[in-house]
Amino acid sequence: MGSSNDGMKTFVIDTNVLIHYPEAIMSFRENEIVIPLEVLEELDKLKAYPDQRGKSAREAIRFLDSVSRKGNLNEGIRLDNGSILRVSLSLPGTIPPGIELDRNDNKIILCAFALQTAGRQVFFVSKDINARVKATALGLKAVDYEKQKVDITTLYQGIREVDASAESIARLAGEGELPWKDRLYPNEFVLLRDRASGGSALAREDWERGRILALPAWDGDTAGVAPLNDRQRVALELLLDDEVRLVTLVGKAGTGKTLLAIAAGLRRTAEDKKYSRMLVTRPVVPVGKDIGYLPGEKSAKMANWMQPIFDNLEQILSNYKRANVKNLEQLVKDRIIEIEALSFIRGRNLPNQYMIVDEAQNLTPHEIKTIVSRAGEGTKVVLTGDPYQIDNMYLDANSNGLSYLVEAFKGQRIYGHVTFQRSERSELAELAASLL
Q1: What is the per-residue pLDDT across 80-131, written as a single tens digit (0 to 9) for each?
Q2: Is 191 left (phi over 0), alpha (psi -120 to 50) or beta?
Q3: Are 433 and 423 in contact (CB under 8 A)?
Q4: Do 134 and 228 belong together in one domain?
Q5: CB-based burial of residue 272 (10 Å sphere; 0-12 exposed, 13-18 middle, 19+ buried)?
Q6: How many domains does the chain have?
Q7: Are 214 and 176 in contact (CB under 8 A)?
Q8: How far is CA 101 from CA 16, 108, 130, in A?
Q9: d(Cα 294, Cα 300) in Å, to the nearest integer?
């Protein structure tokens, strides 16, 4: 390619980056982007998978195919973002000791190594920590794909705690509102605390009038579940508000995220008849064997993955006494509740449903976009999860789709969020979530 590479950085892209985000290539502007041949081979194998990996692989292949029509990928094709994209077959003349050629991962890293040996300024981009360590050991600059990362330590909370006087709290309680000058996001809440007396009050933003509105004490019945702390109270307010079409609940195990979401969904579906059905789902992210290798029919396989949801529903129904609600089996039979793995509902049109996606921290930003954008007319989407408890090896607290969505949607009028901080299970469960 001659002098066209002068001053350019060369980014060698690993397969997992394209699975994470099929359009990642367009993030690297005015540089050289190299796709090792082994990446194409891996995409070809993955395209047959029925899950999100297969979908992402097919999207990446289609993108590369559309680009290839504009020129020769071996020689390099100029993209709209100013970068040059090419496919490389390069391997170094001398293979470094300890690197076996029987693994595609190693060949991909060696492609980057060969390009650096040839004099290019190379960056190896991978979501795989082990691959980055290997690349670094060979003297390469290895980086994660940072485009869709957020800082989990400063993630939007959905509620802010503010020191206030006893007089302000009393005025809020008496008048039902209070003038407020500080900027608040739509559907953000304020917890006023008087540290001297220990008094507190919850309020919700009213950004159009520059005020905050008192949140009344909870006296309702939501499928037999009542909030046990201020943040659970805020969560129920958002979960039962039909104007808020998208809700995220983030917190560690035992904070009540899934329980509250299911309880609110059951009330709005079975009792208030606002939605035609409650759809509860979670991604199948195997820690060991994949679902395809578990014995039995789909229903038997699903029981292994969906048991935490069944447990929450059984707990709710033990307290929820209504004439039209007998047991979980009846609710499923009457199609008031549908429980399904996320991989089985992709591509479906989902109108007028109360949709709960549990364990959403195991989804990539691209998967989250796919799910939320599929919500049909009248559907409310609730995503729950713990960004610190991730089973997907290519995601972390900063790069998972749930964290990314919280940061991207804050400030939108139809969106609400709350981060839970306190476990309500038991002292043992609280210690386990914090220490282990």
Answers
A1: 989 999 999 888 878 888 788 888 999 999 999 999 999 999 999 999 999 9
A2: beta
A3: yes
A4: no
A5: exposed
A6: 2
A7: yes
A8: 19, 10, 16
A9: 9
The total number of residues shown for the chain amounts to: 436
19, 42 contact by CB (below 8 A): no
Q: Are residues 258 and 378 in the same domain?
A: yes
Residue of 289, 282, 331 whose CA lies nearest to 305: 282
Would 203 be classed as within a structural domain? no
Question: pLDDT tens digits for 322-344?
Answer: 656 667 788 888 888 998 878 77
- For residue 86, give its domain range: 2-143
Token pair, residue 127, equals: 């979501």
Q: Does residue 116 lie within any of the structural domains?
A: yes
